[in-house]
Specification:
The protein has 121 residues and is an alpha/beta fold. The chain has helices spanning 6-19, 62-65, 70-83; strands at residues 24-30, 34-42, 55-57, 91-93, 97-99, 103-108, 116-117. The strands form two sheets. Strands 1, 2, 3, 6 and 7 form a five-stranded mixed sheet that branches. A hairpin with a 3-residue loop joins strand 1 and strand 2.
């Protein structure tokens, strides 16, 4: 069963704050099994050309979906790398197949708090 401790999430939160001091991030543990990261504001327009300033990020296709915006892609890939540190091999379950050690989720903004560009160069 996927599980992550509050201490493991706090360690990743601290590392993300050091890696991205110019960004405001929400890093929380959800249902004891998921790390949720929401990028709330920062100097980069994370949704260029979009009217909406909220989107869920498919972690499997970050490089492909954001290939036209390398600055966004690089931020997302680094966040993905940090939150997945310590991700074990997981295990195989008869009902669900492969089950990871814990789940991760990245969003740009939140459904009720759109992403804001601040302090842009």
């Amino acid at each position: 069963m996927p599980y992550i401790t509050a201490q493991q999430v706090a360690a990743r939160r601290d590392k993300l704050k050091k890696e991205f001091p110019e960004y405001k991030l929400s890093v929380v543990r959800y249902h004891h099994s998921t790390i949720k990261v929401a990028i709330l504001s920062g100097p980069t327009d994370m949704c260029p050309g979009e009217d909406k300033k909220y989107q869920q990020v498919n972690s499997y296709y970050i490089a492909e979906h954001f290939r036209d915006t390398p600055e966004v892609r690089d931020v997302l890939l680094k966040i993905h790398e940090v939150i997945n540190e310590g991700q074990g091999k997981g295990h195989t379950d008869a009902d669900y197949g492969h089950v990871p050690s814990f789940y991760t989720e990245i969003t740009i903004g939140k459904w009720d708090a759109p992403y804001q560009v601040i302090g842009a160069p």
